[in-house]
Amino acid sequence: MFNRKRRGDFDEDENYRDFRPRMPKRQRIPPVVQLCKEMMPDIRTIGESVKAFEDDIKFLSEAIMNEYGHEDYFNDALLSTFNAVVVEQPQKQAAIALLTMVVNSKNNVAGKSIINFFFEELQKWCKQTYNEEFKITSNETGPWNKIKLILRFLSILSPMFLVDELTNIYKKLFELSIELNNLDPNNRVPLSEAIYTNTILNIPYLFFFNRNNDGLRTKVEELLAYVEQHYLVKTTDINLLREYNGESPYEMVELVQVALPNVKKALINNMEQLNELFPDWNHLLTPQTGDEGFNDALTLPSVEELKTFVRLSKGFGSVDSMWKTPRYAFHVYLPNSAGNFETVVPINTYAGQLFNDIIIDLVESLEFNRKEVARQVITLDLFFKAGIFTEPGESIAQLIATYEENPLASTFKIEDLAIETILGLIFKLPSVSQPFAYFYTLLVDICQNSPKAIAPVFGRAFRFFYNHLDSLDFELKLRYLDWFSIQMSNFNFSWKWNEWEDDSIKFGRYFYNPKVNFAKNLIQKELRLTSNFSEVEDSLPQEFTKYLDTSYIPKDQLINYYQSLFTGYSVEEDSIRKNDLYFRQEGVPMENIVRKILDYTHKANNSREVTELESILDELKNEHGSIISDFNRFVIILLVQAVADSGSRSLSHANKYINDLKEDLKTILAKIELSVEAKEYIIIEAVLTFWNANPQTGFLVADAFKYAGLITSRTIFTFIFNETGLKNNGLIEATAIEAVFRNLSQQISEENESGNNFEFVFERLCTIANNTIDLLDVNPDEDIEIPKVNGEMDIDDIEGDNLDLRWKYFTVIGFIKSILRRYSYEYRELADKFIAGIDSAIPHESTRRIILNWIQETKEI
Predict the structure, then answer these.
(1) In this predicted model, what pLDDT tens digit does every residue of 126-167 receive, in sequence order?
(2) CA atoms of 539 and 544, how far apart (whole Å)
(3) Which residues contact 559 (CB under 8 A, 6 or more apart)?
(4) Between β-strands 10-11 and 16-17, what pairing exists: parallel, antiparallel or unpaired?
(5) HEC string of 819-858?
(6) Predicted confidence (pLDDT) per residue in 681-718, tens digit
(7) CB burial class (10 A; 0-12, 13-18, 19+) of residue 383?
């Protein structure tokens, strides 16, 4: 037998050593750590399996009863897990509360520790409500929202408490909301509305496990009577925040208005609505003593401490910030016309308002785990009474059949509820709570999880917005466009385009028709989202292939543009190629000289002298000046397009070449005898002409020229709103509109822009509106109505030549509304000036009244 050498032994004679790496001894995980690793995930997923729920309550409660109080590690892990579920997944609060009460009946120390922990959390968040240094993260919903959620959890634990312990907290919160509300008797106080609505919404949870407590019921009745008598709900109709112009497809309802009526209805008739909403888990609940109390009284912030925060103008969290402006209910899935039934629980019911609240909290607080949000929002029904919602994936046709057979059967779809609520966040005005990408990709994830169930739900939403495009808010059309295009790009660009063919055939000749322009922008956006042109082309019927042309400037105008540069020389149409330098094409007279300019642009900075460029331009003038109609204009266009061509590989390349050559360009431009405005206009026109087939890139490259100091935002606005006849691409082309918003937003943080671009854009849009009104030839006091064309009517007989002008009018008016809302702070500063001159600025009485109202409303948002 051979003796095996130990690892590390060395034998000089055999010249041997075992060089295998030393492996650290496997550390033994402490039992309490292992227990937490196995147990805490089960707590976080509690209730997700209905069949296992009772067993989970039994096994988890036994483990907590046995372990709590022995190890700080376990205690801390349990409390932090409970807290995370309570504030991040509020639909599971009742399950955590049940677990707490079962534990409490056998281990009162554990139960007492849990309620004291949450009381301390409640007190902590109360102190944060007036903390100027409060730090927020993307998933921070805000201190008042946390107070709402913790109070809701404690309310479910009401069987543990003396009645006054919880109702006193409610009374204090209502008193605070009333005091805040009375600070301004005539106008809404955002923070007051938030506290009032949040607190009202929690009251039914006091009865989750405690519906037969007469003392509690009496106290709650007194609370509701008190708040109804002393809290004045102020109705607020801010037109700037309306999702639709003119007639809305549904009535605008504020959440603050329905909160108290919803709760009162939920508590009448022996709490019939609550019995139909909350699951009956009382058979799992062990007897509670009902004598618990908190160690201390809750200290709420004073009105004085909150005075600087009542407008919620300082961002304290995504959900709290939503109360800055009135919160309106948002709808997509209206009662089905075929069956006249609801698929979403109505907002004027307690269940409808609660579901809306829970889904928003889920989406906002779990933002860091999008995949989990996608899974949770469509399984919300598991945590409420069975039968509220239909079976997942049921089609509208199936629901119609069910409804006709039994009108009392449920027609509520959890998918509709979840998607509508998320779309409400996407379409929220004046601003969204998270980056749009989060919401868009969340909806993609939801659809990928259950494509057969969710795809038809998306389809109905697509159709709803499309059918109301005539009146949909200008900015919301862009959000709809973005969402639709992202969904399509993630699902192979599949859409039933033939549904829209009739509209394209009927309205295709009109420049400003909103449905045609939506289709154009959608197809062109799809082309930007893919490198496979044929993939998009193959998805379209013949009627829509004409919208595959992504040109910003029509072909005939493009030819005229290049032809205007020459005399005695004809521009060949075939020489003008997509995103390519025309002057370099074979057969163009100055082709060789242009190549010298391109060689110059590619030289390294330290080997380039502007005198060389000036010599090349002199050569150009000597050899070809006779066929160039305006040499100054030609030089600017040629140099700008040469730089654009050199940097055409990517935006980063474009930035590099523009920055490298900006001083050379400034030197040349300084010697050209044209006004600064004229030079700048020629530059941006040259950029967008070069990038004609991809205007999004063109406007981004124009931004790069702006940052290099060669043009200003005002020049970009002037170009965008320049009208060729009656046609103005800047009003309908998505990339141009985005460029307007982007440049206005950039000015907020830029100090080097001369003049006030907010004023300039507003005045330019008003001028376009006035010109359009003049062409419509309406009386000064005559209202202009949104065109309505239905069925098989002959639109020429109905509207004549004025139809496109009316669409144009509502397009430009919608644009004005959007900029006033989006930049309300900046326009607030200009309000007095606008109001003083508005009579002469906008002669048409009806239009003046509308815009004047919006200007005044900027002070309210």
Answers:
(1) 999 999 888 888 889 999 999 999 999 999 999 999 999 999
(2) 10
(3) 571, 573, 576
(4) antiparallel
(5) HHHHCHHHHHHHHHHHHHHHHHHCCCHHHHHHHHHHHHHH
(6) 999 999 999 999 999 999 999 999 999 999 999 999 99
(7) buried
